[in-house]
Amino acid sequence: MKNPSYKLIFISIIAILFLYGGIRLADQSQIVTTFPLETLNDVSSYMTMLYFLHEFGYHEMVYKWYAPEGFKLFETDPPGWYYFTYPLYLILKDVKPATFVSLIIMYILMAILFVIMGKIEKLSRLETWAFFALFAFSPMAIGDYVRQMRMPQMFSWISLLALFAIIFYYKNKKINWKFLIISPFIALLILSHQLETVLFFFVVLPCIFLLKKSFRERTIIFLSALLGILLSAFWLVPFLLNSTNSPKLEYAGSRWLLEFSGGFQFANIAGIALGIALLAVFALYFYKNKNLKNELLFFSPIIIIDILFLTRLVVYLPIIKHVYIDAYMQFFAFFFLLILFKCYKRFSFMKYVMALLPIGFILVSLLHTPWFVTPTQEELDSLKIFEDVKGIYTFASKWSSPRLYTMAFVCYAAIYYPINSSTGWSLSESIEHRRKTAEFQQAFSDNNKENFLRLTQELNIDEIISYGTADCNRLGEFGLNFKIKKSMLCLYSVK
Questions:
Q1: Of 260, 287, 286, 255, which is closest to residue 272 (Cα–Cα)?
Q2: How far is it, in rounded angstroms, from Cα 22 to Cα 372?
Q3: Neighbouring residues of 47: CB distance < 8 A, sequence distance ≥ 6
Q4: Residue 240 φ/ψ, nearest 5 degrees
Q5: Counting beta carbons within 10 angstroms of the beta carbon of residue 425, is it exposed (0 to 12), middle (13 to 18) or buried (19 or more)?
Q6: What is the pLDDT along the chain (495 residues), one digit of tens a residue?
């Protein structure tokens, strides 16, 4: 790199973001010894599913959640990350360190794939590592991958980056049968996470398909995608066959795009800003581009999905509507950075943009991504209530505490106690079971004793745990039998 100012900027980006990312990873490493119980928490569910894989096996019935009917493991959840991490679990004998080590390994694999991507796109070594640092330690990545540890989603990006590398390699080359190397990575993506899979098939794959005009090349692309689907059919076919009876397809994550209040306000503002920034860098990239027609054709699906995102039209489109904000933002962030690094040399003001990016990223992350929450002694004592649970249990509570998350407790109990819950955290129950569970909680909140007791019977609930004086007293008023109180939680028996 000849320009010394850019060289200094890229070195600064790498140093600053690697330092900050290292600090956040060190903070999150507390999960090795501490089970997360707080509200900002997705990883408890993933760790529990990893435990289920070991205890029950692939596509076997699990009764620890959604009892008494249970659920079939990985019938609705892709198994990719769990099998990737399973050897670590066998070695370490504990889901907590296995999950954290898995996170570190995935970061290493990401870095390797960025190096490959950098070579394909003819980026310098400094440009490549700056590209990686900006993506891997962006506010979205710190929030989603480090803090909330959304492991299956992060694992999907291992496949997605490999797919990007292959597609960009063939972007200006004639496609031959060697393109079939893409098939196992497509299969791996399908087995990793549904949302990234949707974005790949609806946005990324059309990029190369539109660009290639010959029948032979398009046939190879089609057959490669088909082979990838066939390689994942052992999981995909049962998933599709059972999807009509699963709440998964009822969960349209894009609806958050219409909510500008509470926790979704910042996410929506950030998403709009990123979407506009992506359009802006594309405009700069296309400006006086010698190969404008082909470049515009190749990137048109990405531009279209960005516009649909900004106009909120994605909320109303089949299949696409299930993709939530975070998935879009990671996707847009990658292409924003890629295009930025492809065209920054043509515009002198870009040096200021690049210099400010790491500072802005860290400030946003510090303001909106809390640090790891260590449970208090009182919260740890609350966990002991599971020692007295004897039958099928559930929680009935509004859970007004900002630190604690009911589902995290359900995950903890599934791993460390031989008891079954009528609820769970995977959206793997039947639609009917999910409906009754929601009605049960609503009846409790509405102080509707008749409906509450009826649904308790229909759900085959034996014992109920609640939180706080008011909610615990309500269970007594409903005629349930008090068993014990442990710190912040109370346990009542239905019979």
A1: 260
A2: 14
A3: 35, 95, 96, 99, 411, 415
A4: -65, -40
A5: buried
A6: 567 788 999 999 999 999 999 999 999 999 999 999 888 888 999 999 999 999 999 989 999 999 999 999 999 899 999 999 999 999 999 999 999 999 999 999 999 999 999 999 999 999 999 999 999 999 999 999 999 999 999 999 999 999 999 999 999 999 999 999 999 999 999 999 999 999 999 999 999 999 999 999 999 999 999 999 999 999 999 998 887 776 666 666 667 777 767 667 777 888 899 999 999 999 999 988 888 899 999 999 999 999 999 999 988 888 888 888 889 999 999 999 999 999 888 888 888 899 999 999 999 999 989 999 988 888 888 899 999 999 999 999 765 555 778 899 999 999 999 999 999 988 788 888 989 999 999 999 899 999 999 999 999 999 999 988 888 999 999 999 999 998 888 999 997
Beta-sheet pairing, 481-486 with 489-493: antiparallel
b vs e for 123-133, b when ≥16 Cβ sit within 10 Å of the residue's Cβ? beebbbbbbbb
Tell me the C-alpha distance between 440 and 463, whole Å.
14
Token pair in block for residue 33: 């010894």
Count of other CB atoms within 10 angstroms of residue 32: 14
Residue 37 burial (CB count, 10 A): 24
Beta strand pairing call for 393-395 and 463-467: parallel
Q: Closest by alpha carbon to 399, among 416, 423, 426?
A: 423
Distance (Å, whole) CA 166 – CA 199: 16
For the chain, what are the domain ranges? 4-34+78-368, 377-493
d(Cα 246, Cα 478) in Å, to the nearest integer? Answer: 32
Task: Please state whether the predicted TM-score (pTM) of the whole model is above 0.70.
Answer: yes
Strand partners, 71: 62
